[in-house]
Amino acid sequence: MKQLIVTFILFFIFSVGKSQEIQPLTSPDVAAFMNANYFPMDEYTGRANITIPIYTINLDGLEIPISLSYNTGGVKVNTASSRVGLNWSLNTGGLISKQILGLPDLASTSKYNQERQMRVYLQYGYLRGLFQTLRWDEYNVPIQNKDTEADLFYVAAPGLTTKFNHAAGRGKALELTKTGSVIYSPFQDEAGRDEIKRNIINFKITSPQGFIYDFKDREYDAVFSIPLKDGDMTDDLVNSPWSSNLTEEELVGYFESAPFYTSWKKYMKLDPFPTIHTSSITSPISKRSVKFYYVDDFIVDSERRIVRQYKNGSRVSQTNIPHSYHKQKVIDKIVFPEGEVLFYYCNDQRQDIPSARRLKKIEVKNNNGKLIKGVVFEHDYFRGASSCNDPQCLRLKLQEINFFDGDGNVLPGYSFSYNTTALPKRYSNNQDFTGYYNGNHNVPLTNYIPRIYYKAGQKKDSYLPFPFSGYSALDGTVSLLPNVTYAKAGVLKRITYPTGGAMTLDYELNSFRFKNQEIKGGGLRVKSQTMYDSDGQQKRKTNYTYKHATATSGRIAGLPWYIVDRDYVTDEGKNVVVNQESLSMPTTNGSLVGYLSVKIEEEGNGYIYNEYSDVDRYPNIYDENFTISEGIRCCAPTPQDIQKKINDGFYPLIYQDMDIKRGKLLHSFVFDNNNKLIRQTINQYSHNIYDETAVWSIIGEADIRSRFDIGEGHPYTKFTSDLLSESYLLNSTKIIEHLEGGNVINTSSFIYDTERPLLKEKKTVINNANTSKEKYTYPFDSEVDPASSTGKLSEYNILTPVGIKYFENDELLTQEHTTYSDFGDGKLLPAHTTMSKGTGQLEIKEIFHTYDKKGNIVEHSRPNGTPISTVWGYNYERKIAQVLGATYSDILAALNVENLDYLQAMSNSDLDVELKKLRNQLPNAQIHTYLYQPLVGIEKATNEKEITTTYEYDGFNRLINVKDEYGNLISEQEYNYKRKPNFTVTPEPLQVKIEVNKEWKLPRPGLPTSYIMSFTAFVKGGKGKYKYEWRGLDPDPSVTSWKFGSNDTFTARAACERVSGTLKIMDGSGNVIDKEFSFKHSMAKPCGSGGDDFDIPSCFIAGTQIQMTDHTTKNIEDVNIGDQVLTYNLDTKKLEAGEVQNIVSPTHHKMVILEFENGIKNTNTYDHPYYVKGKGWASYQPKMTKKNYDLDVKQIEPGDMVFLYQSKSKRLKEIKLVSHKEIEKEVTTYNLDKVSKNHNFFANGILVHNKSSFTQSTPKN
């Protein structure tokens, strides 16, 4: 059993040890439902941190907020609205997002080299070598085609923010922004890589506090981009849009079946995990979990457009993007120990993205089904030009957020107003150089050329998107300069609060210094925030000024780059290719511009002047040193050629990112309204490097058309850079208070662990005299025995301090330490705390005797002191009794039970009876008891003198009054809102989704295979508090046993993968709701006599290319009866025409992917025969072929030679089968069931049988 580890925050433990009395719970704080205040600013980027709280889950001290956030940086033209609204994001459990550097880490495209008779890789991703299918794969990769940069992964979850890649080697993660987290990557071991092959991605990260984050729910992206040039260029997207109902399985199946050299496979950029969402967060204290459930949202063809490239004013190429596909994960439900959060989406079709969802409602319920909080969202649309009806002219707009209770009563929430300037169509070219609207230029898209300016030898600043002294304009038709009026289009300008008060935001363009001149651009910054009361009277206004001395304080890490590299560029900058869209844009803290100084002035109340670390101080490091490998082929570049590219900014392509050091507060000066300095803060930071590795980029092309040479066969240029695992931590802070009697200087310095960014020592000096110091001990420190229970905490990455020493002027005052022990069942928990004064011996101050099953402390005391015991209820989530003067054993004896499990699901009335029994049985103990409304607050508190106080709440769970035991009013609260929302809450209908998880049990000798399937009902809507009754179909010979688990789950053991039955859902009174819900799980596996796939014709998936007699190909799903397909006469060894006489298209569940040495992958059923050299007809499962068709065929296996039709030579060629892989998915398949003449055809060029009127031929060599 895994050890259960509990760690207490030190100050909590030590506060317990300092008191031998019960500390009663305090009354609930009285607060407004929502508070109105200024939103905090990120002055470094000029953005307001606007967050609307919805609800916060507390998991053993870890706060998991559910909220909305708004980006005040402006609305980019290409931005699509989220399910909440334009520029709004819904924050739930967090995610891992990926940034591709170089090639995708799993990139793998190849081409067969006829001369060398081998497959050569055109793309070979950073991690591709972990998945070698052939032992010689790694030798077939020209260095120019090998990915040398590991993709970046950004982690953002509650209590966890970090960044990593896989540069640690063999698929292991290297944490770049060091936090001390332990990162498990599925690429690092065979088990994880096997899951990746089955499209399962599972990252697991353990935070320094020991919380375990599982990331399993992946998204999926596919973009179909076709490069065209010369006579192939067209101004039309020829392909018609894909269906919005397209599934990932259908998309993947199509491309897995397509030969690698087809245009579809070649131009489709697939990313099987661009984002992975949090699936669960588990506490190390109690093993409680918060689980996140998602539904799929399919965003299809929302990015259709053409991007053109120009040289010297003429179009030379373009990229058509006719298709895009994004499978997004949309949060559906969050389940936490005390309740659940439910998310509801509108059924109507969105006007801006027809296949996307719109968030309608959020409900927070406790485990009793009581509504704790209801939130409803009101939307409209931002509308572009009145003449445009295209969805890309619309954007979803969040108008209001309001609140409701379980009875349908409503409360005002927030309303939002936006700038009314209309935005252009998404992907319009009416954009400035950072993507914000800059007005209509009225230039047709076919003539749109961004105006770029050039000056030789300026490195990364050689090509500018704005005019500048000394730079000459290249050919261009449209200015990229920003316009503040249009840049404000659609941006949030006013938030009205529940109280009727409001906050307004005013904006201006960002600005930055470039070669000592001020340039405007990069979106918006906040110019001011103004607060108004409910009567519209201004209460506060804060202005923000972004200047250093008299000039702008804005700095940039680099400019957007529009230039496509070409071999030859003239001294005037001619012959470069200009792209219509920017290709890259460096950022600092997520913004183009960062400010080194900002003045924050509240009108009539003084101001603050802050200075930050910026790009000037910490620019990105481009190492311009390079090496040229000449190889054995013509023609290597000269050093002068490379240096010119460096001078003009094309190289190097990699750099050391210094953004970790930027945006840190260096100095802060606080002035009063008379401009008098009253406080000054000075901060210093330390840069800590924990690991370092070199990375490089290779520039050059490998020519593999005629031959391929292993090793460095072709010339290339190599640049290198450094990749660090690092932190940038506050090293010291000095605070100077300027008082009338003189200055008070408080200086604090910080020392950190050398291997982790954890504080080891804090030293504080006041006025250069009195010095205090704190030193911390961690489980991994040398003074802690690693074999002890305390030392074992580090094995679980629980890195909180276990000891602390306090010094005054370097003299040890006190020291405190917590010792852990194993309390059975593998639970490591605090056993006692010790304390000493000065250099005296440590003495035990508090003993922790007993814990419950969730790790809650249930008995503690001082040595030889009176015991204090605690009783927990509500599923061990809430303290319901504190008992001074009785042990935990005394409590069990008083209640005449062995444990307290029976209390956990009791109603308050039943709990009240048990707590009174406890008082009666322990008359000499001091007892405080508490009853709750779960997730609301205390309902009843009774002290040791049996004086009771009751608390009442309204429908919105706000405290309305407090009464004594006689019903007399102690206090009363009233809530009045000036705003009156005008909406009606519509109850959500009952929604039931039954999901199944299956486990295949390997049989013991002589016993059949069995399957264990657990069915879970996911129920939303209705009134909640449901009961469930599961029933299997009777009789069902496949089911051998049933086992009922929790109320909404049951488990079945079956002889095959086929289980079915019904589910009744009842309300609290036992009434059946709506109807019985039937469920069925059926997979392609033999079950008794026959099975799902045994009576279905064998087939290929959609997208399989069928060779026609006119030497063209058709997708198998597009072939019609009467079509002429190419067949092969095995007796005469001649190609002949065959007529398609019947076509079938059944659904299958189990398929096999056969991969051949030229890269072709065929996906078909297990029983489909191929013609194999030396064997004749052979299939993946000959027994299945025999059973279904009474055909005797051989076993096809890797190494077998099959026959490929070559369209150029019109002859057959032998190719080798290299691998096979089984897959499970429900998919529509196709087969040419009857083909005249020879009863065979060519699928993706490979000779296969149609399995009708089968004739066994003798194999011919």
Automatic annotation (TrEMBL):
It holds the Pfam family AXH. One of its GO terms (molecular function) is RNA binding. Residues 1088-1213 form the AXH domain. It comes from the Bacteria. One of its GO terms (biological process) is intein-mediated protein splicing. PROSITE patterns: AXH, INTEIN_C_TER, INTEIN_N_TER. This is AXH domain-containing protein. It comes from Aquimarina mytili.
